[in-house]
Write a sequence for this structure.
């Protein structure tokens, strides 16, 4: 939809308050999915914190040395530095300088970039190199099929449990059970657990399903794939397997891999969303 | 879970057929982000500055957070550098169609964007929702408190959403007799609050980002405390003077022994130039400074900046200083040089919010800690917080040096 040109007065007539706006087609259309795939590929190729550039992911624990060959994290061109966590704050000490590192923000050290993530006591640091690794695999997807998008109802958990889980980028977070959804795959009715993972800002969260299916380990990533629920205006959700995506460990083995979620294994093959062509497959892809 | 068919502010978004004509970029644009729950309205005000184009992002009468605008043929790029975010759009006649993106850890967060030349029509604020409401956000059968405060602004309904750690800035929108929809987009926050008055209860949904929807219920504020007091979140070691040593913007170390602070009552403002609430708090700090500085009061700003690297952070702090003409000491706290005094902030326990405000007595000890800031949008909470600040400063000023 396009906002009409010369909106001023004409807009005032047409816009009125309190009326329902049709739910945007976002998430339902082939174009939107393909646009998101392109944006993600661009990000992987160009972002300074692309998983293709990650060289190490480590838990900070009692502290990590950085720099020389003998360090916990050897980084060419970096003089000796040390990462520690104190009362939840992450500090980078170089000589007599000490720098507080904010979680989720990029810190440049020499030609490298550091990012700390995770909750106090379980903080990790990821180090990114200056360019994508040369041997990274290209992204691969199944073609978009409208039939792979299901409208589902979220049945809320009666006593939502909290659980520590890994997000797609291998960071451990406190998640809550949001409930279950049911869907029909062929003749079968299947149920999947939905967890609420923390989102980009304090008030944001994502309803995610981490699932395995008949393609896992054959044409898709063995540990499983993530797919998010997209809310609709009618209170139900769109579960679009065309949007299924790999955890970051599929792009780069320095990332820890989320363990499969109990009960979320489908015997049916969900030939939709992201594929996998790397190592560890039962049947190597030619 | 209660689901609502939401009233959304900007309906039937205006398909008007007209001959394509390339509008001038300068002027006002009415825009929406298409989030999963509807359309989030805001405006862009594009002006020429120093030979280039810049855009202010506006929520009603509140405009801030400038973006540089680059036009390449039909492609328009709004670069919101402070938040590492962009809007890229294609210009079709008087319309822009594209996508807002910022980068999270898991890849780009993309939200469809549309804009058209002109402004959104202003509507009269619905009287029935004006005032303060004690709200509960309901997520997975847990609830968390908020205070919603609606006011009649110069350009329509304005609202503040306050949590235990402060408010999210001014929301703007409108409504009908018994429903409302207010939004905030400032380059990084993507929020839409919509609801309806059902009897004595407000019911609705708080939308955050592309697809988070949190139902809420709210009742008229009774006067009983609904949020955790800002003084109850962060505590401090009060037995010894507050210790710090950071570089000022000229690279000179400044510590608690600085003569400008000796024997003074000091308000320590722990801030970041990237923090929207900190921008909202600064005019009030300027008022306090003007009123009390002659009586032995000082303010010390500890800036925590995005990179921690002073070559890129100090220009940000200087921009912040110049925007408000800040006369007090500003230090770049993200890059301290003296290790033992870098441990000054560990005198705080449970640090959670930017800004956090410390009040030091004349002896340098921390006497009060306020986490977060209730900005002007919060009305009475804002007034009360400033009254608290004044009361504390007056009391500390009366103490013997």
């Amino acid at each position: 939809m396009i906002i009409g040109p010369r909106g001023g007065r004409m807009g005032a007539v047409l816009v009125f308050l309190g009326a329902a706006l049709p739910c945007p087609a976002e998430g339902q259309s082939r174009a939107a999915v393909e646009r998101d795939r392109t944006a993600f590929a661009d990000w992987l190729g160009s972002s300074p914190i692309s998983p293709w550039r990650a060289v190490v992911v480590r838990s900070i624990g009692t502290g990590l040395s950085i720099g020389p060959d003998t360090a916990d994290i050897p980084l060419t061109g970096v003089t000796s530095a040390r990462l520690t966590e104190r009362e939840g704050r992450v500090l980078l000490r170089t000589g007599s300088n000490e720098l507080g590192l904010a979680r989720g923000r990029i810190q440049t050290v020499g030609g490298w970039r550091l990012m700390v993530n995770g909750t106090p006591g379980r903080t990790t640091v990821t180090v990114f190199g200056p360019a994508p690794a040369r041997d990274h695999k290209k992204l691969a997807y199944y073609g978009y099929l409208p039939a792979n998008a299901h409208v589902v109802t979220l049945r809320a958990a009666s006593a939502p449990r909290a659980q520590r889980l890994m997000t797609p980028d291998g960071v451990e977070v406190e998640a809550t059970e949001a409930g279950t959804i049911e869907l029909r795959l062929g003749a079968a009715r299947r149920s999947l657990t939905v967890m609420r993972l923390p989102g980009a800002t304090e008030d944001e969260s994502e309803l995610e399903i981490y699932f395995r299916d008949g393609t896992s380990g054959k044409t898709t990533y063995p540990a499983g794939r993530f797919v998010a629920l997209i809310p609709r205006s009618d209170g139900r959700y769109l579960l679009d397997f065309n949007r299924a995506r790999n955890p970051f460990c599929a792009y780069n083995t320095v990332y820890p891999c989320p363990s499969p979620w109990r009960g979320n294994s489908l015997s049916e093959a969900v030939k939709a969303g992201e594929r996998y062509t790397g190592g560890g497959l039962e049947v190597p892809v030619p | 879970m209660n689901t609502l068919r939401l009233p959304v502010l900007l309906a039937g978004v205006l398909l008007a057929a007209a001959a394509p004509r390339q509008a001038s970029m300068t002027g006002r644009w009415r825009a929406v982000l298409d989030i999963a729950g509807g359309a989030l309205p805001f405006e862009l005000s594009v002006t020429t500055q120093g030979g280039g184009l810049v855009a202010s992002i506006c929520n009603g009468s509140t405009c801030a957070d400038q973006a540089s605008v680059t036009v390449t043929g039909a492609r328009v790029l709004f670069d919101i550098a402070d938040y590492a975010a962009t809007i890229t759009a294609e210009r079709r006649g008087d319309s822009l169609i594209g996508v807002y993106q910022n980068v999270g850890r898991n890849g780009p967060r993309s939200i469809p964007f549309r804009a058209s030349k002109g402004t959104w029509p202003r509507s009269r604020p619905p009287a029935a929702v004006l005032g303060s409401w004690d709200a509960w956000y309901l997520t997975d059968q847990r609830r968390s408190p908020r205070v919603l405060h609606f006011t009649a602004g110069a350009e329509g309904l304005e609202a503040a959403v306050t949590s235990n750690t402060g408010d999210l800035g001014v929301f703007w929108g409108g409504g009908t007799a018994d429903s409302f929809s207010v939004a905030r987009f400032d380059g990084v926050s993507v929020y839409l609050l919509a609801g309806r008055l059902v009897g004595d209860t407000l019911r609705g949904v708080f939308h955050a980002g592309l697809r988070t929807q949190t139902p809420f219920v709210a009742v008229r504020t009774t006067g009983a405390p609904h949020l955790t007091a800002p003084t109850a979140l962060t505590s401090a070691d009060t037995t010894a003077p507050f210790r710090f040593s950071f570089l000022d913007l000229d690279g000179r170390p400044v510590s608690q022994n600085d003569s400008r602070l000796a024997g003074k009552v000091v308000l320590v403002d722990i801030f970041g130039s990237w923090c929207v609430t900190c921008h909202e708090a600064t005019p009030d700090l300027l008022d306090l400074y003007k009123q009390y500085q002659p009586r032995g009061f000082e303010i010390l700003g500890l800036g925590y900046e995005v990179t921690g690297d002073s070559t890129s952070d100090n220009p940000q702090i200087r921009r912040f200083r110049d925007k408000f003409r800040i006369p007090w000491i500003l230090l770049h706290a993200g890059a301290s040089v003296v290790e033992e005094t870098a441990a000054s902030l560990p005198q705080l326990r449970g640090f959670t919010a930017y800004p956090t405000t410390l009040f030091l007595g004349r002896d340098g000890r921390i006497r009060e800690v306020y986490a977060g800031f209730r900005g002007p949008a919060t009305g009475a909470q804002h007034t009360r917080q400033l009254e608290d600040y004044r009361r504390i400063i007056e009391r500390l000023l009366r103490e013997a040096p």
In short: DSSP finds four helices and 27 strands in chain B. Residues 380-398 of chain B form the longest helix (19 residues). Confidence is low (pLDDT under 50) at residues 1-20, 335-344 of chain B. Residues 246 and 336 of chain B are 5 Å apart (CA to CA).
